[in-house]
Write a structure and sequence with these properties.
The chain is an all-alpha fold and about 220 residues long. It contains eight helices and no strands.
Length: about 220
């Protein structure tokens, strides 16, 4: 036996899935069937993440089965030992907590970006938005979701979520491109011009000399 077993906290699993799932649903607001399918990828990601974080440490089980006691961890089922990156690098608990803190900051920035994008879209009431955060990137809500999931990976990387992360990125990239085709049909040349000068996800550093869509 390896000391305490700091898992099986299923209330924490359900709580975190509900909180982060609720934030994502609130800011992205899927309506169509294909949007719900893409949201399902994010849902599967957070279920896998929080199940391993608080429920069943599948990654630790795999590491123990492969490396056994040579992993060099006195109690692999202590909660902080479940931090894959910190454990493999042999970091102290303080080092693992610092990584978790940095991941939390990235997650917070992601939620803020999602909120800013949602606010502008909500205020625009169906009109084309090219100002505010949309002057720096065309899809701030999806970029915010990428930051959120990146922060989650930094905070608590697992084998399963590392595999799922590129699938999630691809799913939202395809959704964004589909929405852009619809925007061109709706807004025509205005959106085509906006698309030419503003990047999709990676924010540009300046918007000098550009006209903005201003919201009252």
């Amino acid at each position: 036996m390896h000391g305490d077993f700091d898992y099986g906290l299923w209330i924490m699993v359900v709580f975190n899935i509900a909180i982060f799932g609720g934030f994502a649903l609130g800011f992205i607001r899927p309506r169509k069937k294909y949007e719900w399918r893409t949201m399902g990828v994010f849902g599967a990601f957070i279920v896998a993440l929080f199940t391993e974080m608080y429920g069943i440490p599948l990654t630790i089980y795999i590491l123990i089965s492969v490396y056994g006691d040579t992993l060099g961890v006195a109690n692999p089922f202590e909660h902080l030992s479940g931090h894959l990156l910190g454990t493999l690098l042999g970091l102290s608990n303080a080092g693992k907590l610092l990584i978790c803190l940095f991941g939390g900051i990235v997650m917070g920035i992601g939620l803020l970006v999602m909120a800013r994008g949602w606010k502008l879209i909500h205020q625009a009431k169906g009109e084309l938005v090219t100002g505010g955060i949309y002057a720096y990137m065309r899809h701030p809500q999806y970029f915010g979701l990428f930051l959120l999931t990146t922060g989650m990976l930094i905070q608590w990387p697992t084998f399963l979520t590392l595999v799922m992360f590129p699938i999630l990125i691809l799913a939202y990239y395809r959704l964004a491109m589909r929405e852009e085709r619809q925007a061109i049909e709706q807004f025509g040349a205005a959106y085509a011009e906006y698309r030419q000068r503003v990047p999709a996800f990676i924010p540009k550093l300046t918007r000098k000399g550009e006209e903005e869509f201003k919201l009252s």
